[in-house]
């Protein structure tokens, strides 16, 4: 089991349209999360992509969440491009789906408890089953779907609390998932809580992730739109993001 310490990791940010994004690699992100798990106070991790940052500019509550999160990872090529343009390059993309995989792979070794909350009924359960098969000993202690109104947030939070999770992974879409985490943080008291978007759909097999070549060509966003045309609205925010970054100067 992990021991407690109050030590805080040093942070190295780049400001993207007012959002402080941590200049870290996937390896360092995992190290920081493990450091959070050794502490007693709950931490919020947000994976920031281009569309999410554009959304935050129109949503003061979400903007505040991004500004005050304990860790904000670069979860899109657009964010990496913006950081490079500012002369503050980031080592690489740190996506929610990859972090979920890393966390589950480490949970058996470190003894921390994981709860999966979100997605459609049955998806989190299937994702948990497949993650346990992929990572034997992965300590997923509970799951619940994310189809409930915001008015029921406290009720659901108390349901989750019974499982005493160290890590809470919430897949309810941006910014709903982050707002749920913040509003229920003092009820659930998970040491690490992170919004993970469509990650449960990927791990359950409901949605196929882009092939490695497509990811390498930085066209994963196009792959998502082809599989789910409803995501076109999210894709439309990409030129808006680029325009705003260009206007903001270096």
Please give the structural blueprint.
Blueprint: E1 13-16, E2 19-22, H1 26-37, E3 43-48, H2 50-56, H3 60-68, E4 71-74, H4 77-85, H5 96-110, E5 114-118, H6 123-134, E6 140-144, H7 153-161, E7 167-171, H8 176-188, E8 192-195, H9 199-204, H10 212-216, H11 220-227, H12 232-248
Helix pairs in contact: 2-12, 7-8
Descriptive account of the structure:
The chain is an alpha/beta fold. 49% of the residues lie in helices and 15% in strands. It contains 12 helices and 8 strands. It has a 6-stranded parallel β-sheet with strand order 4-3-8-7-5-6, with helices on both faces. The longest helix has 17 residues. 41% of the residues are buried. The N terminus is likely disordered.
What's the quick description here?
The protein is of the alpha/beta class and 250 residues long.
Q: What is the residue-mean pLDDT, rounded to a whole number? A: 88
The largest sheet has its strands arranged as: 4-3-8-7-5-6
Name the helicity range: 40-55%
Unreliable sequence segments:
1-8
What is the strand content?
Answer: 5-15%
Q: Write down the oligomeric state.
A: single chain
Give the N-to-C terminal Cα separation.
Answer: 45 Å
The largest sheet is:
6 strands, parallel
Give the number of helices.
12
The radius of gyration computed from the alpha-carbon positions, rounded to a whole number of angstroms, is 17 Å
Number of strands: 8
Structural class: alpha/beta
Question: How do the helices and strands follow one another from N- to C-terminus?
Answer: EEHEHHEHHEHEHEHEHHHH
Shape: globular
